[in-house]
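FW: tagging you since you asked about this chain on Friday. Here's the raw sequence from the shared folder, copied in full. Didn't touch anything.
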Amino acid sequence: MDLLLFQLDKTAATPLYEQLYEAIKHAIIEQKIPLGSKLPSKRKLADFLAISQTTIELAYGQLLAEGYISTKPRVGFFVEDLESLPIITKLVPQPVTAPPQQQTWRYSFHPGKIDSNHFPFTAWRKYAKDIFDESSKELLSLGDPQGEYALRVEIAQYLYQSRGIHCDPAQIVIGSGTEQLLPIIMRLLGDDAQFAIENPGYSAIPRIHLEHIIPIHVDEEGLRVDELTNSDANVVYVTPSHQFPTGAVLSVNRRTKLLKWANEKQYRYIIEDDYDSEFRYIGKPIPALYGLDQNNKVIYLSTFTKSLMPSLRVAYVVLPPSLLQTYRQLFNYYSCTVPRFDQHILARFMQHGHFARHLNRMRKLYRKKHDRLIHALQPYGHAVTVFGDQAGMHILICLRSRYTEQQLKQFADDAQIQVFARSDYFVSPIPYSSPALLLGFGDLEENKIEEAVDALMHSLHIQKE
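HL: got it, structure written out here
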């Protein structure tokens, strides 16, 4: 074979040798160059294509390394038998699937979003810069399976100061989200665990594929402990400080009954998800169940999703001493799913007081948004009743409407307003008499809350009083 008629683009960003390599490779695969054919010499092909011999040498070298051609000393380069190659890339056009378009919203009442405009980037960037340095090269290796000790120390101190929880850093396990830690907890509790969950409740819980999920109803005082007592459950998952999604706070009476229920049998446990307890606007902070527990029956679970940022993906669980040994036996092979660098940035951020200051700022900001949202809903009081307005970053509104929740949600969606229905969080159907929607306010601009509420109510066909 004397000449190879390939078009090379000398203005393209792709190097010439790579263009030539790809062209010859494709010609061989498509059998445009027969098996055993001799390729032109480097000098002859370089002259014909008006490129350097070095470019030819690089292209031939890559083809040689991948087995498309072979060389015979002082003779030249020859096309190899493709059947001898373990993998051949077929030149079949692959359909390119465009990523799904992100829905754009005029207003978003998403309960999981935060106010990102007030994140302390300067402080966070400082600690990130300090950590990503050669002095931290040991962080390139795998760390403690339970998470970095420095971060667990800071979490333990924070829980003592803010939630009245006394725990040792050794009891804390760090993971990349509640969904990642829950299967670990359930394995600690055994395959025969009968798992009870609030209904309505946190929608990700059923996804852990447990065979037995027992829904327990929620009312204005939180979890119905009487229903739990009459069930076969031996483990219950609760959000006592601010029930999701109703916003109910578990009453003192029911807290006592729930702890009593756990103490009545040896293998009963309470999983307490304290997901947004930092933000309470009425009265004193609600004490954590873990802090009230005297018999090591509460497994405490929380996250930095609401208090800092969802994308950080740092959650943690405080195991009672009775389960800690079991964890170490079952997960001695385990690697922490949160990058060590991220853990140390967060640890330093907490150690130097930035986390506490950030929380104080955000607590004031979210309280202003909360109060403004409640005030904006007052003109619609004839058709709207507010629940769960004592804490957290969302409220629940019950509506006097002839439409169903899903119809109302669709009305809002048609108006490019993002809301969620209470029924989105049903574990099993509940025949409520009135439809209800969740209104998160974390991502709303404070000065646009009134117009967002007016736009939402207009889409729901609800007029001002």
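FW: Residues 354-377 form the longest helix (24 residues).
HL: agreed, and The longest strand covers residues 213-219.
FW: great, closing this out.
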